[in-house]
Amino acid sequence: MKALVTGGGGFVGSRLVERLQADGHEVFTARRRDYDLTELDATTRLFDDARPELVFHLAAEVGGIGANRANPGRYWYANLIMGAHVLEQSRLHEIEKLVIAGTVCSYPKFTPVPFQESELWNGFPEETNAPYGVAKKAVLVGAQAYREQYGLRTAYLLPANLYGPGDNFDLETSHVIPALIRKMVDSRREVVLWGDGSPSREFLYVDDCVEGLVLAAERYEGADAVNLGTGVETTIRDLAETIADITGFEGEIVWDTSMPNGQPRRSLDASRAEELFGFRARTALRDGLVRTVEWYRAQAPVHAAS
To answer: Which of 72, 210, 261, 280 could be joined to 131 by an S-S link, Cβ 3.0–4.6 Å?
Structure first.
């Protein structure tokens, strides 16, 4: 098929493009420098240029807690409007299917663990990433509305926290795993981490996420959001200790409790993904972390040697 991947030059998108090409699809990669999806004219031009049959909407403006606190308005606006533009152009261009990557940040702050899809609307998201999470959840409502009114086939997925080779290691905007890896590879004395280490997260390796996206495109025809995850809950403190062990970091880990923890607990029930389209994550966290550390060191030999 002719597939369009928004955010195709990004972390997940680039891996998805490689997978789709390997599967024999003709892939059009949309990058922000060429098509700013917050602009309607640029989104229209993208769909005119790509003429896709299948669309994966992965483009997003996103970051860790610090980036979310610094850009609440931008993250709300950009993610909402990009989703709306992609939905409308998918309708107008009569594509066969649209697969949308949502976010686990859309879940309420105090969702019972493991998160089940039925809990998605039972409360307000954690404050530091609520604008981003609410915007992405509004795109789910749009997808369901377009399905009902226009017959647009959509699949909406909620991946756990993603990580792996090619991730964003910029300390100003990165998520927890790349930030920890960079700090522990680059420093030998001390690293300062936000919060107290007690919050938990679930981490999904990038290639497992790609597998879920492809399976949903091929097999899932439902209107409801579906979790993509491992079902394994890990505290930030345990994660930091694991990365310290993998990187050989022997310095001191200092917890800055004046900074926010973020959502207290986060882990997904991914049973519906296996039931509905055969998805099961295959990469154990430590194995994925080892590969990610190796990739970072290969990309940053000066840091690794310091």
So the answer is: 72
Q: How far apart are CA 294 and CA 286, in angstroms?
A: 12
278 CB burial (10 A radius; 0-12, 13-18, 19+): middle
Residue in this structure with the two tokens 């025809």, named with its chain if needed: 221
- Give dist(CA 225, CA 197) in Å, integer: 30
How many other CB atoms are there within 10 angstroms of residue 292's CB atom? 23
Residues assigned a catalytic role: 132
Helix then strand count (H, E) for the chain reads 11, 12
Amino acid, single-letter form, for residue 15: R
Query: Which residue do the tokens 């959502």 mark?
Result: 263
pLDDT in tens, the chain (306 residues): 999 999 999 999 999 999 999 999 999 999 999 999 999 999 999 999 999 999 999 999 988 778 888 999 999 999 999 999 999 999 999 999 999 999 999 999 999 999 999 999 999 999 989 999 999 999 999 999 999 999 999 999 999 999 999 999 988 888 899 999 999 999 878 999 989 999 999 999 999 999 999 999 999 999 999 999 999 999 999 999 999 999 999 999 999 999 888 888 899 999 999 999 999 999 999 999 999 999 999 997 544 444
Identify the CA nearest to 159 among candidates 207, 212, 110, 195.
212
